[in-house]
Design brief:
single chain, alpha/beta, 6-stranded mixed beta sheet, globular
Length: 291
């Protein structure tokens, strides 16, 4: 049985009014434990609405979200349980910090779970370690932290609940390349250490290509493409027509192929591009040697 099943999910904002807008239309998919899934799509494609539905914050007009065999909207108790198992981190989560110390902020979720003081303390320290927040910072006000530290503290507050599915909406938005790589590394470490599933909304095609087991492409509230990075970015022309992009490495490889280099079609990461060019150079060198 899949960890998560989404069945024929549909939703409209301002339903029944002149301003009604279809956000999701008959979406179905399943997610296995431990998968790393990226969700891409242009603004307004339904990404954030879908993420909030997986956490039970928005109820569908039609269809269901089934977590471990239970419809999360079938009962208030089940919905509450689901929100601890599915941790949702909004875009710019640092704006959600509100407690007087970082420690209390990270502890907010575990406290609502009804854990003991000892368990809460253990969760806080574990989450802080995941995001590499020094113990000294835990006693400080979250508003005294740097922007990057605030982001880490907010993500730690979600990780402290040890969700089985960690959902992040653009977790690296607004960060420089170093900060972005640090956040992505922390997410990967959480997944490796806990065996959790990660679902991440991202506008970075390079990130989606590098970290994902599968990618979902949303267009007008529906899934246009789904598959491995190789399968999804094999539709590069279609993605561009949808207003999306493809990884820079794929663009470079395409340009080099147009200039006569015999490179494979499934290049979508910097490492893959470098390896292909190295093989191509070695092949040329071997040809000159034999010629």
């Amino acid at each position: 049985m899949p960890l998560l099943e989404v069945k024929n999910l549909s939703y409209s904002y301002s339903k029944g009014t002149p301003f009604e807008k279809k956000a999701l239309s008959d979406i179905s998919f399943s997610v296995e434990k431990g998968e790393y899934i990226s969700i891409i799509g242009h603004t307004g494609s339904g990404k954030s609405t879908l993420m909030q539905m997986l956490d039970g914050l928005i109820k569908p007009d039609e269809g269901s979200v089934v977590l471990e065999g239970k419809d999360i909207n079938s009962d208030k108790k089940i919905t509450r349980e689901a929100r601890f198992k599915v941790g949702l981190c909004f875009q710019y989560p640092e704006y959600q910090l509100f407690e007087e110390t970082v420690e209390k902020d990270i502890a907010f979720g575990p406290k609502n779970m009804g854990l003991s003081a000892a368990e809460i303390s253990e969760r806080v320290l574990k989450a802080a370690a995941f995001v590499k927040l020094d113990g000294e910072l835990l006693k400080r006000s979250p508003f005294d932290l740097s922007g990057g530290q605030k982001r880490r503290a907010a993500i730690a507050g979600v990780m402290a609940m040890l969700p089985e599915i960690l959902i992040l909406d653009e977790p690296a938005a607004g960060l420089d390349p170093v900060g972005r790589n640090e956040i992505l590394s922390m997410i990967s470490e959480y997944r490796r250490s806990t065996g959790a599933t990660v679902m991440m909304v991202t506008h970075s095609m390079e990130t989606a290509a590098a970290v994902s087991d599968r990618i979902f492409v949303l267009e007008n509230g529906a899934i246009a493409y789904t598959g491995t990075p190789r399968e999804v970015f094999g539709h590069s022309e279609e993605l561009i027509k949808m207003g999306l992009d493809v990884p820079v490495s794929a663009k470079i490889a395409s340009e080099l192929r147009s200039r006569g280099l015999d490179l494979p079609l499934d290049i979508y990461t910097a490492e893959g591009c470098a390896d292909a060019l190295a093989r191509y150079a070695a092949k040329l060198k071997e040809g000159k040697r034999n010629g």
